[in-house]
Each structure stands twice: as structure tokens, then as C-alpha cells.
Amino acid sequence: MARETFTGTAWITGAGTGIGRGLALALVARGMTVAASARTEADLAQLAADAKGPGSILPMPLDVTDEAAVRDTVARIEAEAGPITLAILNAGTNSEVTAEKFDTIKFAHVVDTNLMGAVHSLGALLPLLRKRRAGRIAIVASVAGYRGLPTAAAYAASKAGLIAMTESLKPELEADNVDLTLINPGFVDTPLTRKNKFPMPFLIDTDEAVDSIMKGLERGRFEIVFPWQMTAAMKLLGVLPYGLFFPITRRMVRSL
Predict the structure, then answer these.
(1) What pTM was estimated for this model as a whole?
(2) 3-state SS string for 62-117
(3) Centroid of chain to Cα 181
(4) Domain segments of the chain as ranges
(5) What is the pLDDT of residues 193-247, one digit of tens each?
(6) Which residues are catalytic?
(7) What gap in Å lies between CA 181 and CA 217, rounded to an integer?
(8) Which residues make beta-bridge pairs with 204?
(9) Residue 239 half-sphere exposure toward CB, CA atoms < 13 A
């Protein structure tokens, strides 16, 4: 995979807070024009005010669950800022879904935002990047997509879908000279994770997460995963047979 050079125009979804905001600021500092999308316009305005050049922020309010709006936004970015050379599909949400409170509306909202939001974005981006035979798309999933854990039925399903989708598309897009990167964070201190009611092992701050992602992009890695402690734990769970896996998750249920 080619190394990232951070030139041209970047598009980041979920850029108003957390990892997306940190990446937007980092790319502006590298000189890129960053089209920043999020649902909350006030967050984008604050991001633009806080950005330190030589690049700049182009606020692009957007709800990624609206496919037509996503296509319009991508077209507007290309018209106003030039061809998108790097897209980071980071928009995401989480709602606890359990067997006791199996809320189909919450489940659908998580899947629509996390998985279908990325699908809508790819639908707008891929024809452009494939035609130009250039560009990189980074898709933010999660180590939660490695294995299903209690209370995470919706979140884990959406992130597992992102991982499988990215793995599926990679060899096809390589033939078009379009690079794909899969970003799998563990627990990162963001406004979203602060809503969690359970202990979050190996929690890291946003700056550390952004630094790991930027280094991974620079080196052209396919998977960027961090922190190593959470990665090791989740990858181990991912290979355990069910006879060993379910006793662990049963203990998790009893501790809730």
C-alpha cells in the first residue's frame, strides 16, 4: 500500500468532536484543505476557529444517514475545494442494546449511522476515485467488531460489518489504484465513550489515538489498530473457540 503524503483535499465525517476533530486539526496543520462534516454546525464552526494552518477547514454539515445529502456534499466539496484525495469515514454512534431491552429503533439507528453512513459515503466516492485511479479512503471501525460482546449487539454488528466490507473491497480497489485503510480503535476518551456505563480497559486520550492514526496513514498500513493492550485482548477473543469464549462473556453479563 502506498504511503500517504497528505496533499490536496481531505473529507472527514464525524469531524465535530473526538477522533474526527483531532484528525481534521492534524491534517490542516499538514497543509490540507479539510472538508469537515458533522450534524452539529456549532461544532464545525468551533473546529474552523481552532484550526491552525497552513491548511484550512471547509465546514460541510451533513447527516450521513441521508444518502442524497451525502452525494450532494461530495459533489460540493469537489466543486469548491478540488478532488478529494483522502476520505476518512469516521461518523459513528452507539446505543446499548441488550436481550432485556432489545430496542429495534436504537439498533437501526446505530446500523444506519455506523455502517450505512459509510456505505452512502463510498457510493459517492468510489466512482470518482476509481475514475481518477488515485486516492485513499480510511474507514473507522472498532476492535468491537472482532467479536460480539454483551450489551454491544448493535455496535458490534455495525463495526463487524465495516471490517468485512473493507476487507472485501480492498483487493478490488487495489486494481483501480485506490488505497483502503481500516482503522480499529480500542477505547478512546471521546464524548461518545463518556456515555458508557461500564469500565473501559486501556482507555487512551484522543491525541494518542490521532497520533497512531496519522503514523499508520503515513506508513500506508491497511489496518491501524490501537492501543496494543486492547488489540491483543480482542484478537485473542477473536480466535477462541465458543467453548472458551462464552464462559468469558457469561462472566461479563453477571458483572453488569
Answers:
(1) 0.92
(2) CCCCCHHHHHHHHHHHHHHHCCEEEEEECCCCCCCECCCCCCHHHHHHHHHHHHHH
(3) 10
(4) 9-255
(5) 667 666 666 778 889 999 999 999 999 999 999 988 888 888 888 888 989 988 8
(6) 155
(7) 8
(8) 188
(9) 5
- The edge-to-edge listing of strands for the beta sheet with 179-185 is 56-59, 33-37, 9-13, 84-89, 136-140, 179-185, 223-226
Burial 179-216 (b: 16+ CB within 10 A, else e): bbbbbbbbbbbbeeeeeeeeeeeeebebeebbebbbeb
What b/e readout covers 41-72, taking b as 16+ CB neighbours within 10 angstroms? eebbeebbeebeeebebbbbbbbbbeeebbee
d(CA 1, CA 61): 31
88 phi, psi to nearest 5 deg: -115, 110
For residues 182 and 103, give the distance between their C-alpha atoms in angstroms, rounded to a whole number: 29
- The per-residue pLDDT for range 102-153, each reduced to its tens digit, is 999 999 999 999 999 999 999 999 999 999 999 999 999 999 999 988 888 9
From the candidate CATH numbers 3.40.50.720, 2.40.128.20, 3.20.20.70, 2.40.240.10, the one assigned to the domain spanning 9-255: 3.40.50.720
